[in-house]
Amino acid sequence: DRDVRVPIRGPEEVRQLAVTLNDLSAELKKQEDWRHHLMEDLTHELRTPMTSMLSQLEAMIDGIYEVDIQWLQQIYDELIRLSRLMTDMEKLSEAEAARFTVHIKRVNMINLAEQVYRNFLPMAKSKDIKLRFMNPNVPCYAEVDRDKMVQVVSNIVSNAVKYTNPGGMITLGVDWRPETTIIYCHDTGIGIGPQDLPYVFNRLYRADKSRSRFSGGVGLGLSIAKALAEAHDGTIELESEVGIGSHFRITVPNVYKS
Length: 258
Ligand code: ADP
Known about the structure:
The protein is an alpha+beta fold. The chain contains six helices and seven strands; from the N terminus they run H-H-E-H-E-E-H-E-E-H-H-E-E. The strands form two sheets. It has a five-stranded mixed beta sheet with strand order 2-4-5-7-6, with helices on one face. A two-stranded antiparallel ribbon has the order 1-3. It is flat. The site of adenosine-5'-diphosphate has 22 residues, from helix 4 and helix 6.
């Protein structure tokens, strides 16, 4: 039987141990709270559509209502939305674990942003939105997880396309600073009011639930983007005005500190 006890050599070490243990239990409590709130949010998000789908199906099975293809289509659409919710929930939980699992490389940030720009050109065009890319024409390199940063920028640009009306314009660009790289996305879209602005990065938050439901959003895109940016010690800033548009700024340090 090997003795695995850690020797303690005086009151200072006992104090240090107590501090470490307290920090650990505070961190565990935070994770516990996070899980609890996640369960609450999910249950809330699932209950209403489940109840209504069940009662509609029961009424059809019992012959109270005739089988109606339009209703089936509605139930089908709702199930598609819920399955998207599940996929995004998984992505969010991966994103929040990402601070432990980033694969860091030195990445050309102009290439990265330009790739996202090209990916979204067809979608913007089909909505008659002008999508531009601003190349700073100076080398912009940062130590990041490429795939995860592509996801961050894609989520922001995808929203810009989703929440900008035909005829609008989106500008995606890169700015280099000695310590940080900034990727910005400006749109002339519908904007976000001051009553929603503080909450849009919260999971499952949608500024206009009816509109977002129609556009197929589940309210997780920005929380995923934020968690991934934070896994790089980065930030996402937002300024927006209703009817004018939104400015998103993603900032990541050029040197990754694990
Ligand atoms: P969703 O799936 O609803 O798009 P997000 O987390 O990506 O969820 O965004 C949260 C909410 O923030 C959206 O429902 C929308 O109301 C608002 N929002 C996000 N990006 C924009 C934008 N570029 N313009 C206007 N509103 C936006």
